[in-house]
Amino acid sequence: MQRPLLILRPQAHVNWATLLRALLSHRDVALRVTTPGGRKEAQWVIVTRVQRYAGGLLLSRNAEIAQTKFYVVRFGGRGKLVRLRQLVALSCGFVSYDRDVTIEEAEWVRVESDKPLPVQIDGEILGALPAMITLHPKRLQLIFPVSPDHPR
Question: What is the C-alpha separation between 71 and 108, in angstroms, rounded?
Answer without folding.
Answer: 10
